[in-house]
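S1.2 Input.
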Amino acid sequence: MMTKMTDSGILENFQQPFPVSFKVIGIGTGAIDIIKEVESFGYNCVGCHVAKSTDDCIPMDDDKMAIIVARDNEELANAIAKTYHDAGVLTIGLVNGADNSCYDSIAIDTDSENIPEAIRILLAPLATMGYICYDFNDLCTTLRNRRFLKTLVADGKSLEDAVINIQRKMENVAVDRIEFISALLYFNRERLAAITMDDMAPFNNIISGLPESIDIIWGVNFDNTLSDDIIRLTFIMSGREL
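S1.3 Output.
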């Protein structure tokens, strides 16, 4: 007979120490469903944790990044974030009412139901194999000591389609406030049609068309969860002025 697990039981499952460098910390029971979805990504380098108090979260020497997630309990979220930020850990907030001084970057324009997708965009380049390498130092360059971050994702049957779709989303972005963009391409390693230099032209065009004041870092990664006829383009953008 199956027994339904209570919130407290779920919390106990997440209250284990994780020997990993990248952590996603949900604040209170309101974040349990988000943490469960992030766990479902299967990223071995990422530890998922639900915290009920500051005692549940103590920065470790190996910690490199902490993503703090909260739908409520903003004061607790800020207090936990501050411990990581003060310890020199790259600290990212997906928290309404976040205190800027406690985080390196705070996600904006992210609805509650889209939080797992935003987290996936941040973690994917660190957890998947790179064809043209993008690593944690690149993510740090984009997000450390910023004020805000915004993520975008667009899929297409070709790279040109993905670029067109993300250009449409960029129409709603205040580009003049963006200082850094990490642009990541993903495709299934089993993709039958190889990407050629000619295929890269639309991507090069969108990058070269951005203001010269924006620093661009880009990479290409494999993502075998994608179907073999899909290319995904994601942007991680940051700036200091909202």
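S1.4 Remarks. The first strand starts at residue 22 and ends at 27.
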